[in-house]
Amino acid sequence: MSIETKFINRELEIEALRKLAYRDFSNVLYIYGPEGCGKTRLLREFINEFDGIGIYIDALERENMESAILLSPLARKAKDMLITLAEQVTGPVGRWLCTEILSLVERISLKVQLQDRGLVIMVDDVTRALGLDEIEHYIKWLYELRWRIAKEYRPKFVLIIATTSEGYSLSRVIRHTYNVANLLWNLNRDASIKLMLQLDPPSMHAIDSVWRLTGGNPRRIIEIATIFQWDIERWLTRLELELRSLVRIIKAEQLVHEVMQLIEDPDILDRQPTHKLERAYRILLESNLMMYSGLMLLSSWIEEDKSKWKLKADEELGIGEYYAWQIPAYKQVLCRLLKG
Ligand SMILES: Nc1ncnc2c1ncn2[C@@H]1O[C@H](COP(=O)(O)OP(=O)(O)OP(=O)(O)O)[C@@H](O)[C@H]1O
Ligand SMILES: [Mg+2]
């Protein structure tokens, strides 16, 4: 989407990243959250402000080296050298960069001293770029890379971050001890309103409806405001048409009752698991409509209040203690289609 909104909220998350960047965090930090909740934006904002050596890689970028890589101000001295690397790349550039982190660090070290500085390496959208089968090995590789970099270049601290919105990748990743997974969720109500106020909302009523439908998902908010010009009905109709084929599968698999149960209460899966509920959840997980939300939040690193370490359950938004709908509109639209 071309519109660049003013960055809102996320002070806690930025502070948490800063805190983690300045201590010995030996595991890979795996940031996971709904599609469009703002993972990329958060990482990019962080790198732009970071006062150590920061490297952000967009693993999904196919062609443009300049978009595939973002450096912190201090590391920008090495930018031209890195851009020339693109000449060697034959396939998608982001994917290539994912595996060439050591060469990037080496080139940066020729221009800027790494010793005694903080080094942060962020690889964004790893699952979509590398695929589910490779993700497990890749995270392990990142973990080993961290030690190699620490030994060879002696930075003061090294923090490696990978992100994904692919919920189904989580089970492959969290079963290993070499990473820590944290949740980043959609914006809260106040932040969502601030975001909407940048986008010429027609009324307070529209703001309220968009909040209830998007649950603060910035990409969806921006989409409704710009592409759909605040025409919420048109946006919902488009969503309905997109979800129709999924409804066909749910009906064919005879999982209507189970999906309705998950719409009522996502945590039914935790309390009364059955094979059919698992199957229904799996379909919704793979379609990126639901996800496991019981992880510690990224902001928990700087939060003293234990009650804020996890995402707060909210029935109306479709958020349980452990499972959640990525945005409330999905459950509303599915409910309408399944009943119809
Ligand atoms: N805190 C924020 N303030 C203002 N705009 C934001 C904020 N977070 C995200 N956005 C905007 O919302 C849109 C989606 O954000 P972004 O691309 O970072 O999401 P994402 O979680 O990385 O998505 P995906 O899961 O597809 O990778 C972008 O246009 C981004 O600029
Ligand atoms: Mg992203």
Quick structural summary:
The protein is 49% helix and 12% strand. By secondary structure, it is an alpha/beta fold.
Please characterize this protein's 3D structure.
The protein is of the alpha/beta class. The protein has two domains: 11-183, Rossmann fold; 231-294 and 312-339, no CATH class. Helix content is 49%, strand content 12%. It contains 17 helices and eight strands. It has a six-stranded mixed beta sheet, with helices on both faces. A two-stranded antiparallel ribbon has the order 7-8. Helix 13 (232-252) packs across helix 17, helix 14 (256-264) crosses helix 16 and helix 14 runs antiparallel to helix 17 (328-339). The longest helix has 22 residues, at 132-153. It is globular. The two termini are 33 Å apart. The mean pLDDT is 94. It binds adenosine-5'-triphosphate and magnesium ion.
Task: Write out key terms for the chains shown.
340 residues, alpha/beta, Rossmann fold, 2 domains, six-stranded mixed sheet, two-stranded antiparallel sheet, binds adenosine-5'-triphosphate, binds magnesium ion
